[in-house]
User: Fold this.
Amino acid sequence: MIRIILILIPGLLVFSGLFAEVPKYSNEFLSVGVGARAFGMSHAVVATSVDVTAGYWNPAGLTGLQRDADIGLMHAEYFAGIAKYDYAGFAIRIDEQSAGAFSLIRFGVDDIPNTLELIDNDGNIRYDRISTFSAADYGFLFSYARASKITGLSYGGNVKLIYRKTGDFASAWGFGFDAAARYTLNRWAFGANIRDVTSTFNIWNFNTADLEEVFINTGNEIPQNSLELTMPRMILGAARSFRLHDKFNLLAELDADITLDGKRNVLVRTAVFSIDPHLGLEVDYMRLVFLRLGMGNMQLVPDFNRKNAFDFQPSLGIGIHWKNFTVDYALTDISDQSIALYSNIFSLKYSFYLPSSRKVN
Assistant:
């Protein structure tokens, strides 16, 4: 896996330079994350995701499915419920060596008032002419993973289809790939996920035929069909488990997001790349009850004395696993680390054996 990463990094650097002048901050809704377990650990799960959420975090982890199939659901709301974020996933073991998954992600704002026809031709205000529309982004992830001939090593990838729609005014289609690998050795686990490995392209189409008069009268520029580019992002993770007691186990994971689209406000930043580290801890009791802590969004923030002070965003979460069901909860934006409100994240997972399977609970 290390050899593969060393080969890919120079290629990503060259590829990023070719598109230096193209807008590179597209499809950010796909960076929010899925699964309350991941939110409770500040997204430090790339090396240890082995359930249905692995289709998002690290497709290679799908080979670690504990049963024949997983179903996962998550719902979250942001900005006092104005924006809604939903996830649904299904993962299935194809055979002893491979597995697949499908993930659906939606981030949208619904019931937005459309006041373009509020005033009629006679200058009268007509509230009955107000309609509503939605601005929503959809991500469809088709995942595949396979165990290699090297013990402990698996590899996988995603085919991503993006659909973005803003009422009847504009829509876009996008297409891209992810490539991933995972390696386990004793109590260690390592993961790598290169998102948008070939870059993801969004092609926008604006429906301005019925709005040209409004644009002209208000002095606004009529938008043209355009192209957006999502640059590659590499996520590396390393984790180790520790046996604390016969009934207690500790899992610690450190991940790092490496981006090549310019200097970001993260802990490590240069003119070429930026590194955003995040740490997660998980303590479990007999694999039934889980307590999780996370530390992410680490930054050096200038204070009043113009000296850099270390700042971070903590998170915590709990999980309960009983028979086929797992319920997870996470609380993010704890304390005054940002101006955002607290976010309560819930997710549900159901694992089961297929009727043709001879395994029993």
User: Anything to note?
Assistant: Residues 1-21 have pLDDT under 50 and may be disordered.
